[in-house]
Specification:
CATH superfamily of the largest domain: Bira Bifunctional Protein, Domain 2
Number of helices: 14
Order of helices and strands: HHHHHHHEEHHEHEEHEEEEHEHH
Structural class: alpha+beta
Bound molecules: 3,4-dihydroxyphenylalanine
Number of strands: 10
Radius of gyration: 43 Å
Number of domains: 2
Shape: elongated
Helix content: 40-55%
Length: 402
């Protein structure tokens, strides 16, 4: 009812005072309109103003426009406020009658404002409900923190760390730029020994004293650093970057290894076999896997062994823990007494074992990548295919690669 009337006012169909009053008298208005009295001039001023403001209220298309009307009428400098301010200059009698009229107009305007605000709110809500339909069947979008991808090498290093941490191993680190002494000599590679040549080493220019720094060719110097700085018992793994002058589909000049080292009074090959067996089952996520230990040679271990795991090669795919084939995955052995001695550990009291494994290779084997070089190409399309979600952190309990 009120809306209809206000709409009428807005369209000007009842703009004349006569019509207006008639309707009010008929009860169409909820607010009384003053009749023309002694101070007729002022009365019709008030009435005109009220009519005009009610028209503006009815015509306000949205809440912001309505607020502007409110401020123009009832604000500090608003038109009705200005009328109220004139009361101070009137005689007490005049003030009494004029004050009542102005306040009636003010109330009428306030009421109309409130009602129009409700209407506009309802209209706005209606429009929002119509435009903001939610399709609850849409898949959940990745949060921005989920959009990046973890590189498979980082993933595999996290997996290794989770598995060995569960067996009580700590992670040790060393620098990529190493001394000849730690990379070779203390690991029982004698000067001029052919095993040094097998490492295709990147050397820096010799220093004045003739010594040469190099890019470490394996993670084994971290064994040396750990034994020199810690007392046994020692139980560490050392994942990290390694370098050799080599480049083809199965070799890159920079690659990754993880070293393992255990030094204690009673450690023996049986422990080593158990650890490697548990590791392979956990890493390849299989219940059973056969392993083969073959005699080998490394200067820093005696005896030295190479380890193969059981696999099946089928239509370009490799499966572990089944089949009749073997795949070499690491080298290991009992730490050579010369290495223990060079690192300040008495080989008559302590003994230990170590192993070294290529991380790139086991990452490729586990996640079915064909070319080693792709690991280093930084191709975002490749990464979004082979990468891992950043919040899926590998744990033994939660599943390494799920
Ligand atoms: N450092 C060796 C390499 O890069 C790998 C290795 C073999 C490490 C036997 C070991 C080990 O700790 O016992 O070829």
């Amino acid at each position: 009812m009120r809306d209809n009337l206000l709409a009428l006012i807005a369209t000007g169909s009842c703009a004349s005072e006569g019509q207006f009053r008639t309707r009010a008298e008929q009860g169409h208005l909820h607010y009384p309109l003053p009749g023309v009295g002694k101070t007729g001039r002022r009365m019709s001023d008030i009435q005109h103003l009220q009519t005009e403001i009610l028209g503006q209220i009815a015509a306000a298309p949205d809440e912001a426009a309505l607020e502007a009307v409110r401020v123009a009428a009832l604000g500090k400098k608003g038109s009705i406020s200005a009328l109220l301010a004139t009361l101070g200059k009137m005689s007490p009698d005049e003030r009494k009658s004029e004050g009542a009229k102005i306040n009636l107009a003010k109330d009428a305007v306030s009421r109309a404002l409130a009602e129009r605000r409700d209407v506009l709110k309802a209209v706005a809500l209606d429009a929002r409900l119509k435009s903001e339909t939610i399709d609850v069947t849409l898949p959940v979008r990745d949060a921005s923190a989920e959009q990046g991808r973890v590189h498979p090498l980082t993933q595999v290093m996290d997996e290794l760390t989770a598995i060995f941490a569960d067996m009580g191993f700590a992670v040790a680190e060393g620098p990529d730029i190493e001394t000849d002494d730690y990379n070779f000599t203390k690991l029982n590679f004698p000067e001029g020994h052919p095993a040094r040549e097998m490492h295709d080493t990147f050397f820096f220019n010799p220093k004045e004293d003739g010594s040469r720094m190099l890019l470490r060719t394996h993670t084994s110097p971290v064994q040396v650093r750990t034994m020199l700085s810690q007392k046994p018992p020692i139980r560490i793994i050392c994942p990290g970057r390694t370098y050799r002058i080599d480049s083809d589909a199965t070799h890159t000049p920079q690659f990754h290894q993880v070293e393992g080292l255990v030094i204690d009074k009673g450690s023996h090959l049986g422990h080593l076999k158990w650890i490697l067996h548990e590791f392979c089952k956990a890493f390849f996520e299989v219940e059973h896997i056969n392993m083969r230990f073959r005699p080998s040679f490394f200067p820093f271990t005696e005896p030295s062994l190479e380890v193969d795991i059981q696999c099946r090669r089928d239509k370009g795919e490799i499966r572990f823990g089944e089949g009749e084939d073997w795949m070499e995955i690491l080298g290991c052995g009992m730490v050579h007494p010369n290495v223990l001695r060079a690192c300040g550990i008495d080989p008559d009291v302590y003994q230990g074992f170590a192993w070294g494994m290529g991380i790139d290779r086991i990452a490729m084997l586990k996640y079915g990548m064909s070319d080693l070089r792709q690991l280093f190409d930084s191709d975002v399309r490749w990464l979004s295919h082979y990468g891992f979600k950043p919040l899926d952190i590998p744990t033994l309990a939660g599943g390494l690669s799920s």
